[in-house]
């Protein structure tokens, strides 16, 4: 069953995240190849411009005949000493699928999926990069999502995510995102080992890589098992770092992923260990309306079962901005802020109080049930 990427349920309420996460549509391996990309190698100035124009025209062309597509698939499967024929075929297939939904169906039905998947393990970086981009473009069609997964495409995509070129890794992340929009694929992708590599991409990648990784993680971390895998891979620290650097434009994305993560016990423990409370309180104070709402919801979840976390939130000075949010925010933000203020004003005593001698963070973690 296909999931809704734009909404998710949290504490019985629907959160619309569609404004925070841009879709990975067709591949971003441009028709005009960037310098240094494997695809740009081997063309002089005039020949490169002509080839780029040819690729642009292909990507914007109307539907292509079945004979043309069958011929390209045949070339893709050709076993020759020269890989030039395969390079040409996979680039043409990638471009034909880039903007045209009908071509995506024709290409998959012509038998292109399995040979494209085999290219994901090819040592030639041009074949691999175009292969993963073609898989991404085909995965925009729901029918093809099932076909790619059934043909064994998930594990090779995870390998590309680990070892591919920069562009290949970004497109692999987008392809896995698209496949994860089928609910049963989320578990398969998690079991294939994608989560640690997506966390690594989130932490070390460039701007586009971080956005692609965060969007894929947001989709995958709607299952408990994947949330735990993400925590074990160290997701919380890079999320908090991104939330603390608004100039990167990643605050909303990181905050939504963190909200997913703290819905499991392991996520709440990791968030407290990584000192999430000051970051979240600052968002309530100075963030956008959307960021204030997400931060309040996250703090509410962390504080529900922990008197020490509630005390730490109060010490950070959260009550004044929460009161302000309860008076001037959106209806959902007001509800979250009011619920959190009421929770923070409850007496601290009882069995949730930390054992004597524990430091502040250890006390909060003890509150959450960890020795």
From TrEMBL:
Enzyme Commission number: 2.3.2.27
Keyword Nuclease: no
Domain U-box intervals: 85-345
Pfam family, one: ARM_PUB
BP GO annotations: protein ubiquitination
Residues in the signal sequence: none
Gene3D superfamilies linked to this entry: Leucine-rich Repeat Variant
Pathway the protein acts in: Protein modification; protein ubiquitination
SMART domains referenced in this protein's UniProt entry, alphabetically: ARM
Lineage top rank: taxon: Eukaryota
Catalytic reactions on record: S-ubiquitinyl-[E2 ubiquitin-conjugating enzyme]-L-cysteine + [acceptor protein]-L-lysine = [E2 ubiquitin-conjugating enzyme]-L-cysteine + N(6)-ubiquitinyl-[acceptor protein]-L-lysine
Molecular function as annotated in GO: ubiquitin protein ligase activity
Alphabetic keyword roster: Repeat, Transferase, Ubl conjugation pathway
Intervals holding ARM repeats: 111-153, 193-235
Protein name as it appears in the record: RING-type E3 ubiquitin transferase
Species per Swiss-Prot/TrEMBL record: Platanthera zijinensis
Gene name of this polypeptide: PUB4
């Amino acid at each position: 069953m296909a999931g809704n990427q734009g909404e998710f349920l949290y504490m019985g309420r629907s959160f619309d995240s569609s404004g925070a996460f841009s879709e990975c549509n067709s591949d971003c391996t441009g028709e005009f190849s960037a310098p240094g990309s494997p695809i740009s190698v081997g063309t002089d100035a005039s020949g490169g411009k002509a080839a780029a124009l040819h690729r642009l025209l292909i990507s914007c062309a109307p539907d292509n005949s079945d004979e043309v597509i069958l011929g390209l698939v045949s070339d893709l499967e050709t076993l020759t000493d020269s890989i030039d024929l395969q390079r040409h075929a996979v680039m043409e297939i990638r471009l034909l699928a880039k903007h045209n939904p009908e071509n995506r169906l024709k290409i998959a039905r012509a038998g292109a999926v399995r040979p494209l998947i085999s290219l994901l393990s090819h040592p030639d970086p041009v074949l691999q990069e175009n292969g993963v981009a073609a898989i991404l473009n085909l995965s925009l069609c729901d029918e093809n999502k099932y076909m790619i997964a059934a043909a064994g495409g998930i594990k090779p995509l995870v390998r590309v995510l680990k070892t591919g070129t920069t562009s290949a890794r970004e497109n692999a992340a987008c392809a896995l995102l698209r496949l994860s929009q089928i609910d049963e694929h989320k578990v398969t992708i998690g079991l294939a080992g994608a989560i640690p590599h997506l966390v690594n991409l989130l932490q070390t990648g460039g701007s586009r890589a971080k956005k692609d990784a965060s969007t894929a993680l947001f989709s995958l971390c709607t299952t408990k098992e994947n949330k735990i895998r993400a925590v074990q891979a160290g997701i919380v620290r890079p999320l908090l770092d991104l939330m603390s650097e608004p100039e990167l434009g990643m605050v909303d994305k990181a905050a939504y992923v963190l909200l997913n993560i703290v819905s499991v016990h392991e996520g709440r423990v990791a968030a407290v260990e990584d000192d999430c409370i000051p970051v979240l309180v600052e968002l309530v104070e100075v963030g956008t309306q959307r960021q204030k709402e997400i931060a309040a919801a996250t703090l509410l979840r962390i504080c529900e079962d922990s008197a020490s976390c509630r005390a730490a939130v109060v010490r950070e000075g959260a009550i004044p901005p929460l009161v302000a949010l309860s008076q001037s925010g959106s209806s959902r933000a007001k509800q979250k802020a009011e619920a959190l203020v009421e929770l923070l004003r409850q007496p601290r005593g009882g069995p949730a109080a930390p054992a004597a001698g524990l430091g502040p963070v250890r006390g909060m973690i003890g509150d959450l049930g960890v020795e």
